[in-house]
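hey can u check if this looks right to u? its 387 residues, i copy pasted from the old doc so theres a chance i mangled smth
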Amino acid sequence: MALPPDFTLLQVVPELETGGAEQTTLDVARAVIAAGGKALVASRGGRMAARLENDGGQLIALPMQTKNPLRMVGNAARLAQLIRREKVSIVHARSRAPAFSALWAARATGTPFVATYHGVYKAKSALKRWYNAVMTRGDLVIANSEYTRDHILAEHGLDPAKMVTIPRGVDLERFDPAQVSDERVTELQRAWGLAASDARTKILLAGRLTRIKGHLTIIEAAAKLKAQGLSDFVILFAGDDQGRVEYRQELISAIAAAGLQQEIRIVGHCSDMPAAYLLSDLAILPTIVPESFGRAAVEPQAMGRPVIASSHGGTTETVVGGVTGWLAAPGDAEAWAVALRQAIALGPDGRARMGKAGAERSRRLYSVDAMCAATLAAYERVLEAHS
């Protein structure tokens, strides 16, 4: 079975600012359009909306980020109208709050409902478990890693037949070293205030400025390295604070207190991540909460850069310790100092060998084409069950 010629997909996501779920939304929209279908995305919008529309998708501007019950009911009514008007074939939710509105609208219109479990949602109460379970109430649940799949089975007791694991994909055309010009790298180097002659080991932590990303662990680890006489490195925190002004200031204060102003820089949002990875010698993902997949661990590997990641969650599947990078205990500054020291000591040639292994593995297992093909196959399966 193939997607019908009049196939219309409605994806629902809170906003289109930045992040793995948002990128996957765009990737799947592009694949549906390439297959001859129509791709709608209901969202508050954001900086990625222009990319959606440039690819031929359509943004339906709704306050899908809301958790206000009355506004969620209003969203459900508007989505139901949209589903009927556009003859939507499948509704695909990618976040819990908008999933309620999407599920209600799908049920009201008799439309198949699919949800992707993008994160490992913890529940400390029966109410929170009920809230999280909205992602399991449709026709099919997509888990973005085996780690996520195991969590869903343990937390919700879902029938395994209603679930499929589809690892998140990386755009291997975009994340291809051969496609990144020297000018792009130089422009970014200049924007981040790095001299062309700066020969220090450049270490990139890409991700929004939020406590769970582990910035404070890295500041503490860097302080340990400097106390041991090692300071031939620069760590770059690339990401928005997204309104977390107090946390950003906490990081600035911690960097200053440790005397690391020359070794750690907060460089803000980066719109050219392929160039950022090429500019860097290695990437780090020191999350203190498990990542369900960890796209920021796969993208640098595709660019030929080794990765140090926290030894929990989906990154234990995407980073092979001693082969494509290192795994360090989450929140353990001493363990991170050891891993950073090993990565720095390995030198350019050693890191290049490790980066080559990571590139080969990521291209074999985590292509966006494979992810999109598997997702479209999942849609076909749901449609067949409804026919």
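The mean pLDDT is 94.
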